[in-house]
Amino acid sequence: ALAIVAVGLIAGSIGIFLNEAGLASDHSASIVTAICIALGFTAARRTQFAGTLVFVIATEIFVASLIGTLNLEDSLVAALLFIASGAALIAVGVSSIGFPLSARVVGTVSYVLGTFTFGVMRDSIGASIGALIIALALFAMSTRLLQLEVIAGGAIVVTLTTSLLVTRIVDDQAIQGLAIVIIGIGMVVAASTVNKKRRSS
């Protein structure tokens, strides 16, 4: 709790200073959250919960503020930034920090949402293929990390992006539905296989 209070006081003080200096609010938010990320990551290695919580929340806020600062709301870069932050949080979540589950869960959600957004932001087969490749990378990562939340996230996003690709390639709704069901069953089997490997390791 003291770590959260300390980081909050530091961030608040810096935010007030930047505001008084006339810096734009988006820029101030990016700078403050970047500092919170650094402080949170440092504290995460010393505390069980608070430091990691600060680090995880600040990371996602930083990405959102950076997107606003650079006016990337309608750009594929915005989706890629959430994917990158998700991958970074997952990586941190398998290191020696306090409460690593929070980093893995939030990282997986960020990666999944960023990947699906990447696929739907452009109405093209190319965007769908790109999203599927990114999704497969997460599932491949899950087979090495053997963390349940990453396995589930990987299976979900592969199912979503593959289904998206199918709907853009195939016009027949019956075939689309059948393909999506087959894909879903296939990913359930794949995820179950990886989970069995996790339990036996």
Structure description:
There is one protein chain. The protein has eight helices and no strands. By secondary structure, the protein is mainly alpha-helical. The two termini are 35 Å apart.
Uncertain parts: none
Q: What's the rounded overall pLDDT mean?
A: 82
| N- and C-termini, Cα separation | 35 Å
Order of helices and strands: HHHHHHHH
Q: Proportion of β residues?
A: under 5%
Helix-strand makeup class: mainly alpha
Any chance you could write out the topology, listing elements then pairs?
Blueprint lengths: L1 H19 L4 H20 L5 H20 L6 H18 L6 H21 L4 H21 L2 H22 L3 H28 L1
Overview features:
8 helices; mainly alpha; 201 residues; flat; 0% strand
Summary, kept brief:
By secondary structure, the protein is mostly helical. It has helices spanning 2-20, 25-44, 50-69, 76-93, 100-120, 125-145, 148-169, 173-200. The radius of gyration is 19 Å and the shape is flat.
